[in-house]
């Protein structure tokens, strides 16, 4: 019996809006669009259908996602190139492919529903699964490695910074004490420890008590924020004039990095009292979204995983090579 289809394993979020934001840059023959987070190829399939003259480069750090997306997009094989890469490797990927500039790029951040649903990958806190959390199962460090080896201070720092967890120190101390008896291997023990560490009154808000700890571990395992901080400026730098970037975040840390990176491109470094902005110092980006756009209630009702999505987009308005 055939397994579930890619389209059943992950529903692309805010699909029509993402396509509309990129459309003006992708209508011309030979336009190049990069899907930096190919996943199950849901957005990419729409790009290939809606922009029949465009060529697509799809990246993913998860070899399973690349394989499944490759099968799904096989009808478009002549216009697609798939690369196993972390998205901050984009400049090297483009150089290798001989692509000097791109016309559109999408970052649909985080994990796919397929990754969340595959219990053995250990992203889920509601089931007892191995503490893995690697998006690329060939990468060296798992969540269990972090729990069993980091100092209490380092654990507290990542829980606080990446999980925005108020009780980071208490949880970190308990992790260090618990691993002296037995190392951590599966998620249920960690979920329980976190629940017990959080005072009863604080447990009633913010969803599952272990949610923030699991988010923090996932971000640390995959180096998610550092990679994003490097990748967004590199992607903007790769855009041709009038090329467009669309970024979809699922938590406030990703959205903050996106907001700051895009905003930096809309400002000029010239003092306010200068009557004209000298050439080469004009802003290089124009925002295409006012604040962050959210999915409609109708979309969230059909696809609850869209609930936390926030989209920001910008257009390159000064030619490549002039970013300060
Ligand atoms: C939300 S899913 C993308 C879903 C896709 N847009 C679709 O509709 O099918 C995110 C994907 O990005 C990949 N990913 C996350 N961080 C990455 C990174 N730093 N570099 C490359 N791929 C990454 C994950 O492995 C996952 O497959």
Brief summary of the model shown:
One of its GO terms (molecular function) is rRNA (cytosine-N4-)-methyltransferase activity. With 324 residues, this protein is of the alpha/beta class.
What does this protein look like?
This protein is an alpha/beta fold. The chain has two domains: 6-108 and 224-316, Rossmann fold (3-Layer(aba) Sandwich), CATH 3.40.50.150; 119-222, Orthogonal Bundle (DNA polymerase, domain 1). 44% of the residues lie in helices and 13% in strands. It contains 15 helices and seven strands. It has helices at 6-9, 15-26, 42-50, 63-72, 90-97, 113-117, 143-149, 152-163, 168-181, 187-197, 200-203, 211-222, 224-238, 252-265, 297-302, and strands at 32-35, 55-60, 80-84, 102-108, 239-249, 285-287, 310-316. The chain has a seven-stranded mixed β-sheet, sandwiched between helices. Helix 2 packs across helix 3. It is globular and about 60 Å long. The model has no long low-confidence stretch (mean pLDDT 92). The protein binds S-adenosylmethionine (SAM). The site of S-adenosylmethionine has 21 residues, from helix 3 and strand 2. S-adenosylmethionine (SAM) is lined by residues 10, 12, 37, 39-43, 59-62, 65, 86-87, 108, 110-112, 135, 227.
